[in-house]
Specification:
Chain B: It comes from Mesorhizobium amorphae CCNWGS0123. Chain B: Belongs to the binding-protein-dependent transport system permease family. LivHM subfamily. Chain B: The chain crosses the membrane at residues 6-29, 41-58, 64-83, 95-115, 135-159, 188-208, 228-249, 261-278. Chain B: It is a multi-pass membrane protein. The complex is a heterodimer. By secondary structure, chain A is mainly α. Helices cover 72% and strands 3% of the residues of chain A. In chain A, the strands form two sheets. A two-stranded antiparallel ribbon of chain A has the order 1-4. In chain A, strands 2-3 form a two-stranded antiparallel sheet. In chain A, helix 2 (34-59) packs across helix 13 and helix 7 crosses helix 8 (170-198). Chain A is globular and about 75 Å long. The two termini of chain A are 21 Å apart. Chain B has one domain (2-113, 138-276). In chain B, strand 1 and strand 2 (136-138) form a beta hairpin. The longest helix of chain B is centred in the N-terminal third of the chain and has 30 residues, at 2-31. The N and C termini of chain B lie far apart (43 Å). Classes of the chains: A mainly alpha, B mainly alpha. Chains A and B meet through helix 5, helix 13 and helix 15 of A and helix 3, helix 4, helix 9 and helix 11 of B.
Chain lengths: 349, 287
Amino acid sequence: MYRLTTRTRAGTATEIAVLVVILAGLALPAVTTRGVIQDLFFILTMLTLAQIWNLLAGYGGLVSVGQQAFVGLGAYALFAGVILLDWDPVPAILLAGLAALVLAIPTAFFAFRLQGAYFAIGTWVIAEVTRLLVAQRKALGGGTGISLPREATSNIMGTDAIRALFGVREAAARDILAYWLALVLAVAVTGGIYWLLRSRLGLALAAVRDNVDAAQSVGVDVARLKWAVFLIAAAATGLTGALIFLQTARISPDAAFAVTDWTAYVIFIVVIGGIGTIEGPILGVLVFFALRSALADYGSWYLMTLGLIAIVVMLFAPKGLWGLISARSGLHLFPVRRRLAGLKIEGGI
Amino acid sequence: MIWLDTLVQGILLGGLYALFAAGLSLVFGIMRLVNLAHGDLIVLAAYLVLMGVTLLGLSPWVAALVAMPLMFALGWLLQAAVLNRVLGKDILPPLLVTFGLSVALQNGLLEAFSADSRRIPAGTLEGASLDLGQVTVGVMPLMTFASAIAAIVALNGLFYHTALGRAFRATSDDAVTAGLMGIEPKQVFAVATGIAMVVVTLAALYLGMRANFDPSIGPARLIYAFEAVIIGGLGSLWGTLAGGIIIGVAQTAGAAVNPEWQILAGHIAFLTVMLLKPRGLFPRAVD
């Protein structure tokens, strides 16, 4: 007898290692400084955005340049929930996911009529339209932006418990809460994508990625698949956006809908790490952060270097750093390939 | 007669957008390349012209003439050394490379020229206007529009009446077959990008003389230019002019209703055209 499996020894080892890292990550605020927590928050949110964009472009073939629409709208939905509806910021994050999902429906309806380059530009224009419309909402600060009111940030759900637990000030407790939520979100998104790729849907996605016509000919409903991927990605991006601006507690249309921050850097992370793999964005975000730390004192030189590195990687290692490592070592930390296990070959000529 | 004034100003503004877009239209039409750095290249050219004016004491027109061959060389080199390597069926590699170039250019310019907004001094032309009875039009917008027409006539002449243009069209229709006929597509692409950069320099001259610019304004110009190209349809330069005019008129009309709606109205016009005609109004080439 034989069976179909995606399990490998490296995969199981990774799962155990990841579990240990997650547990350590949850306990980390007890032993580390606020600066480290803020850095980790940044890494985790960028990782989440990168995994989502990788799902869209690397698997779904949807090269969107307009993900900042969902980051921005999600963030503004959080602020609207807190400022206009008087919600606690933590449940208001869910409102952000919902708002992004609602925006994604007309966006997909429109953008899916467009092909290739037109799709990319179309999504960007929709993001611009969303930014301009949001900038006209005077109740949310208009073009200049707005801060979360003190009474809303001073007693966010759970911060009292965190203050008591770690003996920290209120601002630090808010950072820890945001960090925990970012950790949960990053794990949920990465784990969710891993699970998705190993399911039947993932098999269909991989087929679409490799050849749309061939996938269609064996019965994959490509249109439905793209809708599903786009909507899931939009909702998750909205949640991430809300979290990012919950941590900064201040928002403006230019920051929330920045194409460089929420799309260009995210694309760089995915491509430098390796598109079409789960390992790629993880490696990419670490490289991105290392560069940022190393070149932090050089202002715009850092961004210039990042742009040039992305070009060099695309020219000479189009599968990214993880592609290089994986090709040399044959290593897959998150195996999604189906293999036959328990097969005994007997007889033959 | 306010609506007539709005219409005329909108059409003239469309000339500027068509000028932004003409180079992009050429490159996009011939090799389907999405150059996300196009707007930043316009800004780079504007700084080149500005340096000619401030450092060498040239008039803006002469400075633009000096900058044109430099930009041609830059475009040729960019295409031959970088972009030719990533062209293919997959749009992601060129998209990423030009995104990288865009970020690198923006920050390079920021480092070299600071974030201060600058302007190319145009002397008496700056405030000059012509009274046409019903409406008054600025001399600068009129010259911009005339230059856009001239650029498109010149490009079309090149496209339809020269051997190089034949090579452009052949490569646009089918690069592989064109290759069999003795055309070197990569060579053709490099020349095309070089020519696009010459048009970019012309666009930069007007961009810099008409309004202030700084290193961060590239992406917005890129979006207007792309909208004009897509509205017009792939491979049609007159279509690009029509696209530019549609966006220009929509923006001026939007601004006449409410200043906050200017940019928004242009985008809405683009989205509407895309909903009705996803391939643009006058598509010539097939994607």
